[in-house]
Amino acid sequence: MSPPPSPSMPLGVPVAMSADSQYAVDFLVKSSSGLLFGLASKFEWRQFALTGPTLTIVDTSVGKTLHTFNAADVTLRRKAPDSVVYALESRSRPSSRPLEVSSPSVSRVQKFQAALLAAAAASPPTADADLLTLLLGVAMDIVESHAAVPPSESVATSRVSVEQIQLHLAEMQSMYDLQSSCSNMEELYVHLLDLEAAYCHDPTVDSFCHTVHKLHPVQ
């Protein structure tokens, strides 16, 4: 079974709510595949959308509705005190297998639970007041996710310094400046031929040709 992705992955995918949806949020949901040698599990992004009293869970990558519930019939409980995985269960179908939902952000889960309660009570969820509130909510999701699941140490640390990046950008900027100074393609072509000649004479010269060579070395 694959563990829930670390916060280095996106917290969510763009939410595309239908015109009738009152609330939508994205969560990672455990899915299973393979029958011959047992089930292989992984977590995949799914959209949870509330329309009136109905909760639908959608695979937005293919536009397919996977599950439909009555909001009043659904419970969401944490599987363990220190876990980021929650069990979504149906009261009317206690024998059915619960959905496992991953969310390192407690605030995101709490907002979803509040929306569920509002939908079950047939009252629309309270919308965030303004853009600043929305942005603060996203920031809180990120901070909570990183605190709950630290970034993977398997990701290699870049050895490129800020100074090296700035130097590379300065080299590329000189080519953009050259291009903008040319009034037609023929003039640009003449400059490129001059650069090529200078590079053939001295491959270490600081020019666009040298930059291309560094990015695409000839083996």
Describe the protein.
It is built from five helices and seven strands. It has helices at 106-120, 131-148, 162-181, 185-201, 208-215; strands spanning 23-33, 40-51, 54-59, 64-70, 74-78, 85-90, 99-102. Strand 6 and strand 7 (99-102) form a beta hairpin. The longest helix has 20 residues, at 162-181. It starts with 22 loop residues before the first strand and ends with a helix. The model is unreliable at 6-19 and 34-38 (pLDDT under 50).
- Integer-rounded radius of gyration: 26 Å
Q: How many separate helices? A: 5
Question: What structural category do the secondary elements indicate?
Answer: alpha+beta
**Remind me, CATH topology of the largest domain?**
PH-domain like
Task: Give the proportion of residues in helices.
Answer: 25-40%
- CATH homologous superfamily of the largest domain - what is it? Pleckstrin-homology domain (PH domain)/Phosphotyrosine-binding domain (PTB)
Low-confidence stretches: 6-19, 34-38
Task: Kindly state the number of beta strands.
Answer: 7
Please state roughly what percent of the residues sit in beta strands, choosing from under 5%, 5-15%, 15-25%, 25-35%, 35-45% or over 45%: 15-25%
List strands and helices in order, with pairings.
Elements: E1 23-33, E2 40-51, E3 54-59, E4 64-70, E5 74-78, E6 85-90, E7 99-102, H1 106-120, H2 131-148, H3 162-181, H4 185-201, H5 208-215
Antiparallel strand pairs: 1-2, 1-7, 2-3, 3-4, 5-6, 6-7
